[in-house]
Amino acid sequence: MSGAVVEGWLRPVRRVLDPGDEVDWNRLAAMENELGAVLAACSVDLPDGGERSRRLQAVRLAMVERGFLDTMTGSPLYGVLAQFICGYRDVDLRDAVTIGHGRLIDRYGCPALRDRWGAARRGG
């Protein structure tokens, strides 16, 4: 499945998706390939539950550590395309790209909840 989404779905419509050429398409393709390798080592093909949640978090952390899902510093469009690629592999991985709804906890949660959320994001 290596490169299936970027090469098969996204590159053919690159001019429409990225008319300003702001996305690093080689990085996006590398992200897809690395996601495939991480998922091969840590399958999330499990029923819903605690173990699946732990593995989804492990996949996200592995991709962040490899520098592919740090969308806070790159193009917002890269983040959207990375989200599409992750969701193509597993719908629950769409949220792997950013902390998503966790921003609400970071911004508005009580101190204890923010500390707990922060520790979970850092793998603590």
Task: Describe this entry's structure for a reader.
- The chain has 124 residues and is mostly helical.
- It has one domain (4-98).
- It contains seven helices and no strands.
- α1 crosses α3 (25-41), α3 packs parallel to α5 and α6 runs antiparallel to α7.
- The longest helix has 17 residues, at 25-41.
- The radius of gyration is 15 Å and the shape is globular.
- It starts with a helix and ends with a helix.
Q: Shape from CA axes? A: globular
- N to C succession of SSEs: HHHHHHH
How many DSSP-defined strands? 0
Tell me the helix content.
55-70%
Main beta-sheet strand count, sense and barrel state: none
Rg measurement, Å = 15 Å
The percent range for strand residues is under 5%
Kindly give the count of domains.
Answer: 1
Report the span from N to C terminus: 32 Å
Mean pLDDT: 82
Query: Strand pairing plus helix content: what structural class?
Result: mainly alpha
Q: How many H/I helical runs? A: 7
Low-confidence stretches: none
